[in-house]
Write a structure and sequence with these properties.
The complex is a heterodimer of chains A (564) and B (339).
Chain A: E1 26-27, E2 34-37, E3 47-48, E4 55-56, E5 61-64, E6 73-74, E7 79-88, E8 96-104, H1 123-132, E9 159-163, H2 173-180, H3 182-196, E10 200-206, H4 210-223, E11 228-232, H5 241-249, E12 264-268, H6 269-281, E13 287-294, E14 300-305, H7 310-315, E15 325-328, E16 335-336, E17 350-354, H8 373-377, H9 384-392, H10 396-401, H11 412-416, H12 423-490, H13 503-524, H14 535-552
Parallel strand pairs in A: 1-14, 9-10, 9-12, 10-11, 13-17
Antiparallel strand pairs in A: 2-8, 3-5, 4-7, 5-6, 7-8, 13-14, 15-16, 15-17
Chain B: H1 14-36, H2 39-62, H3 66-70, H4 74-85, H5 92-107, H6 120-131, H7 133-136, H8 148-155, H9 170-180, H10 188-192, H11 195-198, H12 206-222, H13 229-248, H14 256-261, H15 265-272, H16 283-303, H17 310-327
The chains are: A alpha/beta (564), B mainly alpha (339).
């Protein structure tokens, strides 16, 4: 009934999904403290609108969206704001970021929720509502959803693709969401459909989730919708947005283009669910489903509040004693969080208790034997081993020629490599080096432009000043000459005109005098405020410069996951 | 603890790849022993030992971990390919010279595993056939029946070599006969009728060894150790040119069947030209590489100065690998419509 397309490459790691799907979704216990990072989506960092000591209600705005590509952040429960301060982030770097620390009062009291009938609203208003409710892509990329709900003007919107593939091993939160809350997922998809007006709506789910497919099909039928629920072959990374679009529509979205340019838009099922809750129930995004699995006794999916410390949440699943770390995300694209206190954020779909028993350390790295397994596994049809040679040789120009920025870091190449080369790490290294160089180059270009501008201005000012002085001097000399001539005429032309009064000589003399005056003036002038600075002042200037260049570069704090 | 994603890894290793290549050679070796005598086992053992010892020595000199690289199996694969391409009754030191040169010069002086631009086994063959042309052309006489002890005595120089080594490979025999018979008008079909030398279709004994290599090669392909492009292109090119000339003048040129199953064609197509390190890596590049090697092997065999051309064909194609791969880069995801 439905023709599927194939994407090249991909791998079939053991799925390890069954463990966490035996029990229904449960609510995670209220933690003692929540640290809600303000920057939880791609785009601008929301501005805090609360301060220490404020009491907040569940769902109350605590961070106001900054700009159009940014999404609001809300208090996950009622309680007291203890601090608005730097706290550790769930990011491989282990860096801190501005967070709102809330001590729950245990009552979990909501703000006054205002459900709306979106059918009566203008599309712009719906988009604004979603932004204000903090709805972002929950597949991992956390792109603000409202920013993706405008169809391209020149290209007709052909397909709306809904991503329920959930291809990474261990993760089952979307599976359980589709099983248990299919109706609300379908109604959320309805909102997206109404805003984008696509010709078809395709919901892609990997065929290892028959329960979810059945639940969605039933919900679609019950709502009388015409969405197609499509079982796609289980093959990692079928849930990468571009791979799923390829499988369902046959369209390949190049790295440099948006899918809307090809008439496709893609959302995660969990995003559709939160959009529905936001519109129809007035509930902003304050919690999400998180799979707790791996080296634990009770793997299960929990509805966890944003800001819950990961260690505390994982404890609910009873990790085995040899657990020595927490992976956020799946085993292919996730990362070991540097700190157990790092909070659950909107991008946290799964926490895996790590142990060497479950994930044995890789054997020693061997030289590449160019077997090409990586190239056959690459879903973007790159040549990972070539990229590896160039990255290792720091030949970054060549890595760009071989399309390193098309790499989605899905990990298929590392997964298959018989030489156990951590290829993805080399590519991340190359990308960050290229970014750093571009930043440096931009900064240098900026400094050069500023310097040249200053030099030009100085020269122009000098020339103008000299001209003015010369004019004044010439006028004076002419006056003197005229006076002298008049005097000479009055003296009955007996005395010859003194040599000094020859007009040409007089003019030259005055010009020289004017230039000497100008020079003296320049030397006497107060030094510019950037000259002769003290060491502290120079350090401060350098720090300000550094901050400025940093601010000019979008933060890379959220991995662009393949699952959305 | 430092670990980087992906935390899940497929169960794969270089040594597993190399072990599978060795396993795939086993049917060919078994038929070789069965039909042509057990001397090849001595050569395989000598070559393996020489390869491992010289690899250990050079690894030590280069300050590389011994256990890790000795166990990767790559030296053994090189050793086996050398032994299988050398005459089975050649003196032991010949295969040692070839193997040591392959491991030390062709492999490690270029950087070791994964870095060698030329196929080390074929370098060994080329060096020895150029340096010791007589020894490299002395093949056991057809119908010779020697015990393992007698064969060992010949290999280790304890018995005179003369009688046992009057033979030649079928390819060599055909080439020499054609040269001699150019005036007297002997033609290929008449020569090939001599089943003592040429067997049923491509050389007594040798044809079945080649068939066993084909079988092992197909197994490698099924296991995903090699891809289809190189063997298919090699065989297709060899078949195409030999068919063309055979149809054009069947009295002067042997049939494609003869060419496919004699000499190093099957071993070359599945085990030598498929070496990933020194070969092309892109799918289209592999087709070009395989076809080039097949074509050159035929031209050297039939028109060149050596009885077989696989080794030189592969080495010549090795030189061309960078430029072939440069022009054969496949389009990436989303860029297929672009010119």
């Amino acid at each position: 009934m439905f023709d599927l397309f194939k994407f090249k490459g991909g791998v079939k790691p053991p799925t390890n999904k069954a463990q966490s799907t035996t029990l229904p979704i449960a609510a995670a216990p209220l933690p003692a403290r929540l640290a809600v990072p303000l920057h939880q989506s791609i785009g601008g960092t929301p501005r805090p609108v609360v301060k220490a000591g404020d009491t907040v209600l569940k769902g109350q705005l605590i961070g106001q969206a900054d700009g159009w590509i940014s999404a609001a952040v809300h208090a996950p429960t009622s309680g007291t704001v203890r601090a608005v301060a730097m706290r550790v982030q769930p990011h491989p770097s282990g860096l801190d970021a501005l967070s709102v620390v809330i001590e729950p009062d245990g009552q979990d009291r909501w703000i006054e929720r205002q459900p709306v009938d979106y059918g009566k609203l203008a599309p712009e208003d719906v988009r604004e509502l979603l932004q204000a409710a903090g709805v972002v892509g929950l597949g991992g990329a956390v792109f603000p959803t409202h920013g993706k709900l405008t169809a391209a003007k020149s290209v007709p919107m052909e397909e709306l693709v809904i991503n329920g593939a959930e291809c990474e091993p261990f993760i089952t939160c979307d599976d359980l969401l589709m099983r248990e809350r299919a109706d609300e997922v379908v109604r959320g998809i309805g909102i997206f459909r109404d805003l984008l007006q696509p010709q078809r709506v395709l919901i892609g789910v990997e065929d290892n989730k028959p329960e979810a497919i059945a639940a969605l099909e039933a919900a679609v039928r019950a709502r009388g919708e015409s969405f197609s629920v499509v079982a796609v072959p289980t093959r990692y990374p079928a849930g990468g947005a571009k791979q799923l679009i390829r499988v369902l529509t046959g369209k390949e979205v190049p790295a440099a283009r948006r899918s809307t340019d090809l008439g496709v838009q893609c959302f995660n099922v969990a995003t559709a669910y939160t959009a529905w809750r936001a519109i129809a129930h007035g509930e902003p995004v304050v919690s999400r489903l998180v799979t707790l699995t791996g080296n634990v006794r009770q793997p299960r999916n929990y509805e966890a509040l944003i800001g819950t410390p990961m260690g505390e949440l994982l404890a609910v699943a009873q990790p085995n004693p040899d657990t020595d770390g927490i992976i956020m995300g799946g085993p292919m694209m996730g990362f070991l969080v540097p700190d157990r206190d790092a909070p659950v954020v909107k991008a946290t779909n799964c926490l895996i208790a790590h142990s060497d028993r479950l994930f044995p350390p890789a054997p020693p790295e061997m030289p590449c034997i160019r077997c090409g397994e990586c190239a056959r596994a690459c879903p973007h049809e790159l040549q990972p081993f070539e990229l590896y040679w160039f990255a290792r040789a720091r030949n970054f120009g060549k890595t760009q020629e071989y399309a390193i920025f098309d790499c989605i870091e899905c990990g298929c190449c590392s997964y298959v490599c018989p030489s156990r080369i951590p290829l993805v790490q080399y590519f991340r290294f190359a990308k960050s080096e290229i970014w750093a160089r571009e930043r440096e180059k931009n900064a240098a270009d900026g400094a050069k432009a500023r310097f040249e501008f200053k030099q030009q201005r100085d020269e122009r000012e000098k020339a103008e000043k000299a001209e003015k002085l010369a004019k004044a001097a010439a006028a004076q000399a002419a006056k003197k000459a005229a006076e002298a001539a008049a005097a000479a005429a009055g003296e009955a032309k007996t005395d010859p005109a003194p040599a000094a009064l020859d007009p040409e000589t007089a003019k030259r003399a005055t010009i020289e005098a004017a230039m000497a005056r100008a020079k003296a003036q320049r030397e006497a002038a107060a030094p510019r405020n950037t000259d002769n600075l003290s060491a502290e002042q120079q350090a401060e200037v350098a720090a300000i410069e550094a901050r400025r260049t940093q601010a000019a570069v979008p933060p890379q704090s959220h991995p662009n996951g393949p699952t959305e | 603890m430092f670990k980087s994603p992906p935390y899940l890894l497929q169960d794969a290793s270089v040594s597993r790849v190399m072990t599978q290549v060795c396993l795939a050679l086993v049917p060919g070796i078994a038929v070789y022993v069965w039909l042509l005598g057990p001397a090849i086992l001595i050569q395989l053992a000598v070559a393996s030992l020489a390869a491992l010892l010289s690899e250990a020595l050079i690894l030590r000199l280069r300050g590389k971990p011994l256990a890790l690289f000795l166990s990767d199996g790559s030296a053994v694969v090189t050793a086996w390919l050398i032994a299988l391409t050398f005459p089975p009754l050649a003196p032991w030191w010949l295969v040692v010279v070839g193997t040591v040169f392959a491991i030390v010069v062709a492999k490690h002086l270029y950087g070791g595993l994964g870095q060698n631009p030329f196929n080390p086994a074929m370098i060994a063959f080329a060096v020895c056939i150029v340096s010791f042309p007589a020894l490299m052309s002395q093949w056991p006489s057809q119908g010779l029946h020697l015990s393992l002890a007698e064969q060992a005595n010949i290999v280790f120089g304890l018995m005179p070599r003369v009688d046992a080594l009057a033979g030649a490979t079928p390819l060599d025999a055909l080439k020499t006969a054609l040269k001699l018979g150019a005036e007297s008008g002997i033609d290929v079909p008449a020569l090939l009728a001599n089943q003592d030398i040429y067997g049923n279709f491509a050389g007594r004994g040798w044809e079945w060894v080649a068939a066993a290599y084909l079988l092992g090669g197909l197994w490698l392909w099924l296991r995903g150790v090699i891809t289809w492009q190189v063997p298919v292109a090699f065989i297709a090119a060899l078949t195409a040119i030999s068919t063309a000339l055979w149809v054009y003048q069947p009295t002067s040129f042997a049939s494609p069947f003869f060419h496919l199953f004699s000499g190093g064609a099957m071993l070359g197509a599945f085990f030598i030209a498929t070496d990933p390190v020194s070969g092309c890596t892109t799918p289209r590049g592999k087709l070009v590489f395989g076809a080039g090697a097949g074509l050159l092997a035929y031209l050297i065999r039939v028109f060149g100065g050596y009885p077989d051309g696989v080794a030189f064909a592969v080495l010549i194609m090795n030189i061309c690998v960078p430029v072939i791969d440069l022009f054969c880069q496949p389009p990436i995801f989303g860029m297929k419509d672009k010119p």
